[in-house]
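Workshop exercise sheet. Pairs work together: one partner reads the sequence aloud, the other fills in the structure field after running the prediction. Swap roles for the next sheet.
Pair: D.N. / O.F.
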Amino acid sequence: TPNNGQFFTPIFDKEATHTIGDMAMDWNTGSLWVGTGEVNSSRSSYAGTGVYKTIDTGKTWQHLGLEESHHIGRIVLHPSNPSIAWVAVLGHLYTKNKERGVYKTLDGGKSWQQTLFINDSTGCVDLCIDPQSSEILYASIWERTRVAWNFNGSGEASAVYKSTNGGETWINSTKKESGFPTGHGVGRIGISICKNNPSVLYALLDNQFNQEEEKNKEK
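Structure field:
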């Protein structure tokens, strides 16, 4: 929309996908990045075909690869270098695959490096960057398995990871001593960083630990 939503024109309906997980806009260069594949785990969740970018307001699109990502949770762009971006890749829904975790590009999406990989059933569902330091990023990792007759939406590998070198290496920030829940019941995690105080990070947890049944006590 060029007029604050008074009318809209479709710009992505001719590409080889019909679901979108996230978009990121670089207002300095006018480039729009699109990560495809909806980031849900129901049987009606459709996979995408990777990352796309436009530099002419959607008139033409470049396909930037990551076809096996299937479900992209977040795209984060470097605040001052338009060639650098990070992508949270959740991976296949029904099958195991190694193309999961965090991917980074240094050349505007021409090539990608997988900088965080846990296992073939665990991917990255959310990603955020410190607004005061582009070297600091946080990634929420989600272990999940889906088959036609069952869905397991939690696992031991689910956690929040932190990088202090621009996403090159990562450290688990939610180990047992951290105070954050750990174990088989840790499900999907959403994260958001405080812009005014980047030392504050918020995490929204899908807690799937079984609650103990309360025993009726005779009076």
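Discussion prompt: The first strand starts at residue 20 and ends at 26. What would you look at next?
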